[in-house]
Amino acid sequence: MNDNLTNLDGILERLCVANGVGYAGDVKNVLLNEIKPFTDEARIFPDGSVYGLIKGVNNINVMLACHIDEIGFVVTDIEDNGFLRFKQVGGCDDRILPGQEMIILGRKEIRGYVGAKPPHLMKKEEADKVMKTDKLFIDTGMKPEVLKKFVSFGDFICFAGYYDKLQGDLRSVKALDNRSSIACAVLVLRELSKLGSPVNLHFVATNQEEFSGLGARIHSYRLNLDYCVVIDVTHGEYPGLSEGEYFSLNKGPVIARGATIPQKLFRLLTQSAIASEIPYQIEPLPSYTGTDADTIAFNKEGIPTCVLGIPIRYMHTPVEVVCLKDIERTSRLVIEFIKKL
Question: pLDDT category, 240, cuts 50, 70, 90?
Answer without folding.
Answer: confident
